[in-house]
Amino acid sequence: MKKVLLTGAAGLIGAKTAEKLLAQGIEVVGIDNLNDYYDVNLKHYRLSQIKDPKFHFHQIDIEDKSKLRELFKANRFDVVFNLAARAGVRYSMENPDIYMTTNAMGTLNLLECMREFKVSKFVLASTSSLYAGQAMPFKEDLAVNTPISPYAASKKAAEVMAYTYHYLYGIDVSIVRYFTVYGPAGRPDMSPFIFADKILKGEELPVFGDGTQSRDFTFVDDIAEGTILAGKKLGFEIINLGGGNNPYTLLQMIELMEKFSGKKAKLKLGDRIKADMDVTWADISKAKRLLGWEPKISFEEGIARLVKWHQTTSL
Question: Which branch of life, at top level (predicted)?
Answer without folding.
Answer: Bacteria
